[in-house]
Amino acid sequence: AKDLKSVGITVGSLGNPYFVTVGKGATEAAHAINPQAKVTVASADYDLNKQFTQIDNFIAAGVDMILVNAADPRAIAPAVKRAQAAGIVVIGVDVAAAGADATVQTNNTQAGEISCQFLADKIGHKGNVVIENGPQVSAVIDRVNGCKKVFSAYPDIKTLSSDQDGKGSRDGGMNVMQGYLTRFPDIAGVFAINDPQAIGSDLAAHQLNRTGIVITSVDGAPDIVAALKGPTMVQASASQDPFGMGKLAVQTGYEIMQGKKPADPMILMPSHLVTRENVGSYAGWTH
Amino acid sequence: MSDISEDSTAAGPTQPSGGAGLSARQLQVRSIVQALGMLPVLFILAIAFHYLGDERFLTPQNLSIVAQQAAINTVLGAGMTFVILTGGIDLSVGSILAASAMSALIFSLLPGWGMLGIPAALLTGLGFGLINGSLIAFGKLPPFIVTLGSLTAVRGLARLMGNDATIFNPDLPFAFIGNAAITIAPGVRVPVLAVIAIVVILISWYVLRRTVLGIWIYAVGGNPAAARLSGIKVWRILLFVYSVSGMLAGLGGVMSAARLFAANGLQLGQSYELDAIAAVILGGTSFVGGIGSIWGTLIGALIIAVLSNGLTLVGVSDIWQFIVKGLVIIGAVALDRVRLQGSART
Amino acid sequence: MSDISEDSTAAGPTQPSGGAGLSARQLQVRSIVQALGMLPVLFILAIAFHYLGDERFLTPQNLSIVAQQAAINTVLGAGMTFVILTGGIDLSVGSILAASAMSALIFSLLPGWGMLGIPAALLTGLGFGLINGSLIAFGKLPPFIVTLGSLTAVRGLARLMGNDATIFNPDLPFAFIGNAAITIAPGVRVPVLAVIAIVVILISWYVLRRTVLGIWIYAVGGNPAAARLSGIKVWRILLFVYSVSGMLAGLGGVMSAARLFAANGLQLGQSYELDAIAAVILGGTSFVGGIGSIWGTLIGALIIAVLSNGLTLVGVSDIWQFIVKGLVIIGAVALDRVRLQGSART
Amino acid sequence: MTLEPDPVPRLEMRGISKTFPGVKALNDVKLKAWGGEVLALMGENGAGKSTLMKILSGAYQADAGGTLLIDGKPVAITDPIAAKRHGISIIYQELALAPNLTVAENIYLGIEPSRRGQIDRPAMRTGCQAVLNRLGAPFTPDTVVSGMSIAEQQLVEIARALHTNSKILVLDEPTTALSSRETDRLFALVRQLRAEGIALIYISHRMAEVYELADRVSVLRDGSYVGTLTREELSAEALVKMMVGRDLSSFYTKTHDPHGSRGPVLLEVRGITDGGRRVRPCSLRLHQGEVLGIAGLVGSGRTELARLIYGADGKAGGEVILAGNSVAINAPEDALKVGLAYLTEDRKGLGLFLDLSCGTNINLGVIGSDARAGGILDRAAWRRRAARAFESLRIRAASPQVIVGSLSGGNQQKVLLSRWLEIGPKVLILDEPTRGVDIGAKSEIYRIIDELAKRDIGVIVISSELPEIIGVCDRVLVMREGQIAGEVGGPGGAPITQENIMAFGAGMAA
Ligand SMILES: Nc1ncnc2c1ncn2[C@@H]1O[C@H](COP(=O)(O)OP(=O)(O)OP(=O)(O)O)[C@@H](O)[C@H]1O
Ligand SMILES: Nc1ncnc2c1ncn2[C@@H]1O[C@H](COP(=O)(O)OP(=O)(O)OP(=O)(O)O)[C@@H](O)[C@H]1O
Ligand SMILES: [Mg+2]
Ligand SMILES: [Mg+2]
User: Fold this and answer.
1) What are the CA-CA distances from residue C191 to residues C61, C65, C76, C98 (Å)?
2) What angle do CA C337, C340, C345 make, to 5 degrees?
């Protein structure tokens, strides 16, 4: 059997704790296979050039496996090919990577759907909603599409805006939400593309003494757990399992190294909704 | 050869007979015009946004939001003004803000001692500022490179402090800093963040205009060699300005932590340095050093905040926000230039 | 900085009798030392990474990767050198690179005319450079603000060009630029990207050192007022340097497009300006203008690439990469300063 | 003015050496100065005078081995503050002001009156005004330095040095930009300070000033001490011989035809004005082969007039006619194109490229026209011209590759002058052409002016040094308050004398 000596991981941004957790899951899986295995996690900051460079560096460093969270699912293809030519197994994580041996990702469209379905139900299928967009990466685009699909099913739900970038961060979400709240006197619900934005939006609403807004998002991050338990307007988050994702990616990659290809190279991890009701039993990101 | 020279001077030494340089009065006027130079731009923007945005811009509530959004950049810009007045630059403020916010949150989690988060953040900022300043003052290294280095290194440290995760504290003991507002008149509430920013501006103004230190800062920026020959300890001035900039970045960290209840070593403060520098330069402070005022920086920071807030309010899409913002920044200085035309010699 | 440097042997008509300035020989040595100043740093880094990284660093394959990684930054740095030599700055290169790469890809998709992508990108870059240059040369606006404005505005345009999506072309007609290598000796293959970078450096060197234009660029940077009084058309020089910087950013766009087969208006080229400026300043070019050399920029760009590549190779974690990178940048200039000590005038 | 036979000099420097990277600027120099005397320090450009004084003021550190005694006690001067503490004040040759600050702020820089850190501006203003009054300076304490002319800035420097009570006052070429009125003022002050018992060290290249003021003269040559002459021993020949190491014959030589056969009018300026801010409508004519002087008090607008003619500043009205053709001059390059050149009075600020080599500075005006096709430098021409300039102006530098910033002031001036000589202009305006230049070089520049006139070039000389104006010019215009107040010399005009010029300059003559 081929040995797993080192793994290279390149992710969109290590500033997002989500990807840090992916890295931890992958590290645990790698160490389970070979306690001496070296795992390097690099942050591409969503720059394809940087990501290519990192993959080249991994190739030069002679890793056995690369987990790539592609800055662009299609455009990553040449780099994937190069790595495979050097005999490296390439696994896409969180986002598809064209040409990769396999991809492990959350079903983002589904996540957007369940989050917005919950929102729609909570507001009684009518009223003004806002989709607080984020950096245009495929995961975000999928969530927004999933969400839009749900909203469009209800003629009484009106989407006021979906073209503002909350930058995926708390203060980005807060600033954008402040604008929304000033602009729109009547908002029933807000779907934020990730948890930090949702919390930022909640902070903004609190500050402006606006109540009764239903906020939902996607991620199930540690801080949303606290938010769901506390006095916030955040009602639900479609959870992802980054730790499990990293683990599964390495395990899948290791099997491919041993010659066992998965039946479907696209492995979708379903998202579960974490709500105020079930948050007590939610295990969170770190297993 | 001195037969006629006596009486001609009797005409009075104070007489700017024919040609002396600009008088202080003129200069003061010019400097005020320059500092307030961008005020018209600010007003035009505000009015435009008000009418384009369904008259929602100039409401007390929204103005308080704008003030809040401008506050952190104003504080960073004040520190940056000190630095740029000496002819330097500080690229590391965004990273220092992130590290200080991390400090603030880490200490805020100490049971019973949560308020320690504030001094911890200030000291973190001051510490990094001192390191920057020492390298520049004693090592005589170029400020751009030193602070570019610490932009990178401090960013790493900030991430290390939180183990690359977001630290959050929903029960932040100093949350009022980021969220409370002070009622200064019936119905007029000023956010604490904005009050802090105004206090920082006032102190900066006092230091720059009313103290010896202020003159020395201007002198070092105007002609470092002359300052040195006058016996000014240039290294002290440099140490001071970078420390101030660091400490104010630390204050920015406290403000940001208090506003968000959370901090993240990687994301927080990314490219804040550009906004701070933009505020300073929009405010008419010169990159070569020695010329500029703190009021300009305040107005510059307000313009930037008004732009972001107003464009969102009007519903301009994110893409067009970029384009419009860029053009307005250029347009603002261009306008300023047209207004001040013909005041410079070669 | 001895501008016409070769014949220091032709002992001048006057003798260095007693009190004269530095001799030409000394000056030349100093200037070479300055330009090559960072070479030792480069060597030390390379050797350290080689031994820390299981002897993988100094392999032909890895060196070719490093060369490739340094290539784009070198090209941007060359343009930036021109700009900084005149005392200016160009913050917009990253955005221009993104917009040009978008142009390259959009045109590359025209059936049968795909090669048009190259001139399209170059012209896009040149166009934006010309706009920057015009605002600075004719509008007399501060370069920092103008290019900060275009950093933002051009970024928006780049996103607009691709409708905020990635444009992808797997059959890029000029893919060889980003992927092929030229065999210059048996077993020694140099990536085309690196060849382009070297050619750009050579041409820049020629322009700066062997043409009238080059001397004018140094003159404008050294003393713009004197340059004007000497009859140099300062506006032309400024227009030229910003156009060059824009066009080279366009070339960078072609290189990036060819390497990635794709371009994205939002993500591509983010904060590349900082890397380019860092390369220039690490290379010993002075921010105030008038002093510096293109070779220094090359070495600066190589140091930055070696650092990124080496740290990953050695398996340093992302956080520590930040910290180490920052410290090495500061350490490098500090070392340089120690080496050159005692050569500064009051 | 007899010297008290005080056995202990106020200041004694012994065995002072100073090495810059690549240059030994001073070699085992000694110097003594007593209180109540004016010691003139003389020497050619680059002899090391300024360097010696900068060591005294703490701006430079001498090489190890020298000693410095004040009132017989050895002292260590490690920085400018230490020098101030020992009562040493200095007026630097190269202006050392912060241009963005006001006069008062500059004068008090480093010694601001303050109460608990807060500056006492009224005290500063009053103190400053008092010194300005003593100097008769034509500006206020609140004037910002960056808008002032070089002469005015020099007055600020002087005011700064005078305003502290010092035991030793060094004046390094304080009068290079001053006209006779300010100079007289300054001299009166110097005499007064001497009477108060202060030791004054006075550096100048103007013989007349040295004769007038000096009690003793010490001479440096090539960084070494040559000797000291007392007042009784002082003679031009002896001094020149000590400084230059050879005899220097005639000083002002006029071999061109002053005005016997006047050439045609080369340059005519009609009613040029900047709108009345600095220059009210001025008209003048310059003949072929004529040397036209422009005299006037500091701030009378001479520089501004020249800059208007040259196109350096925008004019509000007026016409420039060259060789009978009206020419449109809107920028310096337009002036250069028609053969009109202007040498600035501010060589560091507006003239030289301090970080570029001497050769490039010399060639800067002509590299464009020398260049081979495609703008490629003609390096042979570069070397040829640089070598020629070095030879003809006796520029003291190791080679043309040396950066100009490391040269002494006088040599820098020669480099700048040769830039304009190389372009071969038809009309050359020289603004304070001999600022800070030693006698050898001065006579060289006078010879060149004469030479230019002989080649039918029209030369305008703006100078604050009346002997110079009188010595080299054929005709002199006198400016006052932005206008041409009168004319002396020329065929049928009043003779060129100090009295005549000053009468117009001060507005005494109708
Ligand atoms: N850029 C400027 N801004 C404001 N005032 C100026 C400027 N330049 C010159 N002046 C003033 O204009 C007057 C005329 O200056 P100018 O330099 O022409 O005088 P000048 O006769 O050449 O005397 P000198 O050069 O000896 O001072 C001076 O009083 C000077 O202070
Ligand atoms: N900072 C410096 N670095 C290198 N060389 C210097 C420096 N300062 C002065 N020199 C050199 O030292 C020598 C003496 O210069 P200094 O300025 O003392 O001459 P000076 O006698 O004052 O001449 P001048 O009459 O022209 O003012 C010159 O050769 C000069 O080039
Ligand atoms: Mg001197
Ligand atoms: Mg003058």
Assistant:
1) 10, 8, 18, 22
2) 95
Q: Quick check: do B and A touch, 3+ CB pairs under 8 A?
A: yes
Residue C139 lies in a domain: yes
- What is the domain extent for residue B139? 39-339
Q: What is the DSSP string of A60-108?
A: HHT-SEEEE--SSTTTTHHHHHHHHHTT-EEEEESS--TT-SEEEEE-H
Report d(CA B199, CA C154) in Å as an integer.
36
The span from the CA of B106 to the CA of B132, in Å, is: 24
Question: Do D376 and C210 lie within an 8 Å CB cutoff?
Answer: yes
> How far away, in angstroms, is D19 Cα from ligand 2 center?
11
Q: How many domains does chain B have?
A: 1
**DSSP collapsed to 3 states, chain B:** CCCCHHHHHHCCCCCCCCCCCCCHHHHHHHHHHHHHHHHHHHHHHHHHHHHHCCCCCCCHHHHHHHHHHHHHHHHHHHHHHHHHHCCCCCCCHHHHHHHHHHHHHHHHCCCCCHHHHHHHHHHHHHHHHHHHHHHHHCCCCCHHHHHHHHHHHHHHHHHHHCCCCEEECCCCCCCHHHHCEEEEECCEEEEHHHHHHHHHHHHHHHHHHHEHHHHHHHHHHHCHHHHHHCCCCHHHHHHHHHHHHHHHHHHHHHHHHHHHCEEECCCCCCCHHHHHHHHHHHCCCCCCCCCCCHHHHHHHHHHHHHHHHHHHHHCCCHHHHHHHHHHHHHHHHHHHHHHCCCCCCC
Q: Could you say which ligand is closest to the alpha carbon of residue D48?
A: 2
DSSP line for D314-360: --SEEEEEETTEEE--SSHHHHHHTTEEEE-S-IIIII--TTSBHHH
Q: What is the ipTM of this complex?
A: 0.81
The number of C-beta contacts closer than 8 angstroms across A and C is: 88
B19 close to ligand 1 (CB < 6 Angstrom): yes
Fold category of D11-244 in CATH: Rossmann fold (3.40.50)
pLDDT in tens, C56-70: 888 888 888 889 889
Q: D377 vs C212: CB contact, 8 Å cut-off?
A: yes
**Among residues 205-234 of chain C, which lie with CB inside 8 Å of chain B?**
225, 228-229
Q: What local confidence, expressed as pLDDT, does residue B28 receive?
A: 59
| Closest CA–CA distance from residue C7 to any residue of chain B (Å) | 32
pTM metric for this prediction: 0.84
Residue C160 has its nearest CB partner, among B146, B149, B319, at B319
CA of D179 to the centre of ligand 4 (A): 10
CATH number where C172 lies: 1.10.3470
**pLDDT tens, residue by residue, D347-399:** 888 999 998 999 999 999 998 888 888 889 999 999 999 999 998 888 888 88
Residue D266 in contact with residue D458, Cβ under 8 Å? yes
Residues of chain B with Cβ-Cβ distance to A202 below 8 Å are: none
CA distance C316 to chain B (A): 12
Q: Is residue B34 a part of any domain in this protein? A: no
Show the ligand 2 pocket: residues with CB < 6 angstroms.
C 19-21, 345; D 20, 23, 25, 43, 45-51, 93, 406-410, 436, 438
The answer to the question of residue B330 being in a domain is yes
Evaluate whether chains D and A are touching (3 or more beta carbon pairs less than 8 Å apart): no
pLDDT tens readout for residues A104-149: 999 999 999 999 999 999 999 999 999 999 887 788 999 999 999 9
Query: How far is the centre of ligand 1, averaged over its atoms, from the C-alpha of B8 (Å)?
Result: 18
Residue A285: CB partners within 8 Å, gap ≥ 6?
A: A17, A18, A21, A220, A221, A222, A241, A242, A243
Asked if residue C25 belongs to a domain, the reply is no
Backbone angles phi, psi at C5, to 5 degrees: -110, -15
Fold of D249-339+425-510: Rossmann fold (3.40.50)
